């Protein structure tokens, strides 16, 4: 019994040491302002060179576990795992998570391949991510966000030994948005501000590649309608919703104790301006936030107003409609916007 315990402790220490060496190697590497996909590929190359992590490039489109390259699982000592794959269905992703023992950093590049599905994924896949208790899913908008998430995952899973696995959806659209230390920590919690302008009329939230359309919508709102918008990047709507739901449950069970807060409410506190949250996934992913936002809330995703992710024009129209519903602008401006941008429901 004593010998077995010593082996277990040795393996844990070895894993943590390997993870720290990975973090050190990545921290000393010169980061380039690139897309999330190219940033993670560069990080994978650094990890391969360090020989302290398993880096696997899997391209199987089968849901059968035997077709996933799982030779790393035969090793007796756990190492940090970065798995680059192209799973487009929940069945494939479930098989992959099972064969990796629901451990590791799973990075999906399916968004960059031709597909009739939003973000290249069948609708079941984002729902599976949102409901899997051991999965922490992210949809980074920039290479800086992706880099911060991978480093945090290495520390959380392998240095601190926390259970579960991380998932990153990777696109290849370049973004040069730098992150301060404060923004980096906020991004890991689910959201951070891209502009801290005040006052503002509406708040726009975006995730992943859809954030680019949100940025353009903010400009159109100001140029065409004299509406000021506060802009937020939300790498993980699911993490925001989970923390908010957990805080709400704790407060319900402990009514005599001080209330617990959550990152979502902290970020949106102090204003009644409408919140428009946008994702390239189906709307259900942002619907998770609705119960925890005190202001008027509009969720926009693939299928909300058009088959693909909402365009900048639909985001503008939705923001104007929210303001009209609040009585802050005339409803005729909504009609004028729909005519100006020639938008129609598909």
UniProtKB/TrEMBL annotation:
Domain Transketolase-like C-terminal residue range list: 190-289
Family matches, as Gene3D superfamilies: 3.40.50.920, 3.40.50.970
InterPro entries associated with the record: PDH/Transketolase, Transketo_C/PFOR_II, Transketolase-like_C_2
One of the Pfam families matching this protein, by short name: Transketolase_C_1
UniProt KW Signal keyword: yes
First and last residue of the signal peptide: 1-18
Domain of life, source organism: Bacteria
Alphabetic keyword roster: Pyruvate, Signal
Name by which UniProt lists this protein: Pyruvate dehydrogenase
